[in-house]
Queue: 2 jobs
Job 1
Amino acid sequence: MEDISKEQPATSKLENQLETEKRRSEDYLTRLKYLQADFENLRKRCDRQIEETRSYSNERIISELLDVVDELEIATKAAKASPDSQMIIQGVEMTLKKLRKVLEQEGVSPIECEGQVFDPSKHHAIATEERVDVSDCVIVEEVRKGYMMKNKVIRPSIVKVAVNSSKSQEKISKNE
């Protein structure tokens, strides 16, 4: 009988150790699953960041090229005012056309603004003009073109915005 009673505590001890190891094993498995999920999320986030960086990697050079476009547009306007400059006009226009094509291939497009409602995310207002024929907050003049690269504004348009003078007159007359 002594042998049986000695075996029960030894068996019980082994069963306790087995249960402890099972819990430890389950804990490790749970930790591994969480680490695996965290790693997968990190990988996806890194992939998104790499794609975004790749997508906008040319932004600095594009911004500099836009200044060249502005200068070519000014040269074209000035040359058109001079009667003897037809060849210069054609050369500058060809260069400008090529440059615009390069920008377009890089996903750069001008922001259309004249006649549009002012949008502070795309436009930068430098002046207002009182106008009766146009609604409030409508762009009446583009001073400098703005550009977008894919869906991101890389240079806002500099514009003049209409202020309806009839509303201004109504406010003045109401105050008198």
Job 2
Amino acid sequence: MNDAFIYDAVRSPRTRAKPDGGLHDLRPQELLRQLYAALAARSGLSPDAVGEVILGCVTQHGEQAGNIARSSVLYSGWPERIGGLTVNRFCSSSLDAIAIAALKVDAGLEGAVVAGGVEMMSRVPLLADAAAVFTDPELARASRVLMMGSGADLIATLEGVDRTAADAVALASQQRAARARREGWFHSVVPIENTERGITVTQDECIRESLSMADLAALPAAFEEIGAGGADAVQLAAYPTLEAIDHVHTAGNSPAMCDGAAVVLIGGAALERHTGRPPRARILHAASACGEPLQVLSGCIAAARRVLGERGMDTAQVDLFEIHEAFAATMVKARRDLGIGEDRCNVNGGVIALGHPMGATGAMMAGTLLDELERRDLGTGLVAASGAAGSGCALLVERC
């Protein structure tokens, strides 16, 4: 890509996916309306310049069904000519939305596109759409599609990640996220008004600042029952050298379900004349890739490798990484396979601590990456996310 730039990125706070969560009372359209307004105000954008809105959303059911991208544009009062496209590649969906937007801008098909994602998991719960591939055991086995936690436990078994190592990843995520929140490093977060309760939500809620290794060690394995129900047998048949699956993942070292949304303004070089503000970063490359489906969550690694390989780069040439913290063992594998240290990866925590609003997480990570590149005065960053069934997407950016 040569002419696709990120002008700004904003996100809501990530709040608990429970009735007492700060965003729970808001419809996803209302949450997006506030983010569109914040993006326009911060970037100097007039909605008249926008050609399309592209959003990721995983559970397209109920309030999130019916093309949430288009319905949110209309709900927000933006020009009715603006198109809306909703995409689903599981947890990398909003990164894919950004990539599609960048391709359209780079090809000259659009001058400005708003891309991002939304997931209100307290209002539209995980698996509310009752997708057959997750609810029909026969179909799941034939398709080699298992739940994410089962894939994480398989990765832990294959990589030799024990419970202590998994909990250490979770604790580091909590500590880093707590520090970033305390120091005000998440500049992409904008306040959201919850008029139903008369409150303004300004900070991420899922971070557990006082969490300890002892707290984590006390939690039971979360996916042992699913394994006993048939998932272990499928995995062991595919990996006959394994004697058993090690169930090391718990609620404490797994992604926290939450509510949230994020939007990013993508445009060509000419958009600067419209906004009067320079872009923050150039999108150098984007790619999707898939890994082994029974491992479920290794797609981020495959996508990162593809992006770097097609760009003729290696990981040593990237200053910072934001890798989807899709369960603790996945992070251990990603750092090993990509050859990156903790000093360059998820330096402000990940979704284990911050929360994982599935369709929005990739765009949130992109904003976090930009914020931290600017804070450290660094140049190049890579963001990658995994999704179910081994899918993944990665985005390589360079500060302007």
